[in-house]
Structures
1.
Amino acid sequence: MTERKAQLIVDGKPESVELPVYGSSLGPDVIDVRGLIESGYFTYDPGFMSTAACDSDITYINGSDGVLLYRGYPIEQLAEHSSYLETCYLLLHGELPDAGQKLEFENNIRYHTMVDQQIHQFFNGFPRTAHPMSMLVSVVGALSAFYHHTLDISDPEHRMLVARRIIAKMPTLAAMCYKHGVGQPFMYPRNSLGFAENFLHMMFGTPCEEKEVSPVLARAMDLIFLLHADHEQNASTSTVRLAGSTGANPFSCIAAGIAALWGPAHGGANEAVLDMLAEIGSESRIDEFIARAKDPNDSYRLMGFGHRVYKNFDPRATVMREVCNEVLDEVGEAADDTLFRIARRLEQIALEDDYFIARKLYPNVDFYSGIILKALGIPTSMFTVIFATGRTPGWMAHWNEMVSGPYRIGRPRQLYRGPAKRDYPAVQITAAVS
Ligand code: SDX
């Protein structure tokens, strides 16, 4: 196939540098701008609106058509037919497991869910009021202290062992962050339970009594993890890749990803959605908040709306909305579905309003997930911890994809707009030596 090239023309004058063009299997092709430096130019793309930072086979998003594929499989089909652990295997290995591989993977995860007893001591240092994300980011980073002997990132066996370990331990650590905050003893994982059921057991069970987990709620929890499992080169995944590009150990890279996810513009939005719905408080106040979100002089934004890539509906939000109905039905009047009513009304108004339509602002994954989590009895402060738990296989798959091939340290450049070179003024020298 003939080699494709892009030509750069600046102020009408063609530059000598030729920029190769590479084809994608889906989505935009790319122009390789690495040679641009020879012509004395950098590309300029704050926020990486039009920058492919890597090539990847893992996840494909088509923002205008609302498409999300994990290794080619549509998220809607995985949500209907798969499970979180099967999806973890798919993201890590590139193919769905056969029956034997699935059983082996599930057992492997099952027998790595416990954490070293020393990790329990870490929590004694946190105030009971510590935000769960502040605890999670700390203890995940500390995990490397327990596994230095199996952190050779050039060894594929070590890489997969770390991936299974961290996927298995995240729900245990997440539940410990919650239990520390409520002053209850940590619950050990139960090998007889499924992944999501085990998490809800560690969250809400106590040594005094088992927590009966309904299959509907366990399935909803599993689906929440599945829908958050990966999402291409989002901010936290790009953070994991950048940290990984220095050769840092994978636990540190995941801790960096957790830190990035915490921001309200990213994974922190699900917590911010609930805070927003609670602040709105009643359907009669929705217009007031819509007006604020539209006011160019007010930095207020409707949490759970908008997305850098989706300029149509977020397919995950569509699945989440259906799960919302099922969960609220299951928990019945016990759930505060006022928030759900406000959310539905907010969505309806926003989707009819020119401001949101012109900017293609649709509900994103965080809009409904918070309502489901609240209906499951999970406190708002734990929402982003749940997001991090679900996103762990995606972070590990991208880290593994990068370090298993040739890679270079990520080191962006800049458009420098500071002062030109200048000398230290004599007057200061005299003053300094006097
Ligand atoms: C996630 O990248 C991923 O894949 C992330 C994620 C994943 O799975 O990893 O999907 C998870 O992070 C989902 C997004 C969760 N965040 C929120 O719900 C927070 C609220 N949304 C926004 O802050 C915003 O929409 C972003 C951060 C999500 C996207 O920001 P962009 O692409 O940089 O868009 P922008 O800030 O340039 O906004 C474009 C316009 C602006 O108006 P104008 O200056 O053109 O007049 O839309 C407006 C913005 O003011 N706008 C909003 C808005 N989001 C954008 N106005 C009101 N409410 C909002 N929510």
2.
Amino acid sequence: MSMCEFVDLHTHTTASDGTLSPVELVKLASSQGLRAIAITDHDTILGIPEALKEGRRSGMEVIPGTELSIEYVLPNNGHIHILGLFIDLEAEALNKGLAWLRKKREERTPKILGILREQGMDIPVNEVNEIAGKGAVGRPHIARLMLKKGYASSINDAFERYLKKGAVAYVPKEKLGLEQAVNLIREAKGTPILAHPFTLNLSFPELDELLIGLKDIGLRGIEAFYSTHSKEQTKGYLELAEKHDLLVSGGTDFHGENKPGINIGTGFGDLRIPYSLVERMKMVI
Ligand code: AMP
Ligand code: ZN
Ligand code: FE
Ligand code: FE
């Protein structure tokens, strides 16, 4: 089967916490023979214009997107991320919301570094900002410096021992409410999609119940195909999509070297996300 029928609708670039620039990411996707990719950087759409340009150059369909973290209390530490696909880059309210989130991210960095300093790690804030460049700064940038300076043995080690929720240097970031996020995406003519539903840590019956409310507030789709989903998870999410009349999405959450082992389009190797999902989305937009 040729790869030109496949897509990746969840990727991160240097505009947030991925390690490939938008242009490099589109080139990679193109060289892998993918037909379309969505760029879904956290809290930003600033990488998308150059990706669109490279897409036109290399004949690759680039879907403008973003990924938003949601303030929502779930049992068992579950968390919700919402993807917005087919975003209008000029949408005013969305741009304002994203700029506010990025400002809050910048304010969080020195707080995390202050705690790390108490733990004996010297990481200057300007070095973090340098690594983040123009991108939305986040914990993976700090983790990379911890690795570089020998304070951690891997990015995962930095998260596990210091940065993850519940660890000593965890500082929560500002998040949007669920309705707020869905509304911002819809006002931007986008399609709101529940990202990597396994992170909600709900059973299928619990998610089934929650989806009624999510659909009510305007959710349009669910990311059934995802790098770490098991066959059973994918099957369960596909059934829920069908039951709730939700669009099906799929992506790898590619981050380059910040998530080693995850390949664009194929995740850990066996993911195949059909272009027909994109056609379905376009039919109902
Ligand atoms: P932040 O945006 O600062 O809250 O950081 C969240 C980012 O860190 C997301 O892209 C996650 O995928 C990433 N992340 C969380 N845990 C890990 C981990 N153990 N290894 C690598 N990346 C992680
Ligand atoms: Zn990320
Ligand atoms: Fe996410
Ligand atoms: Fe992501």
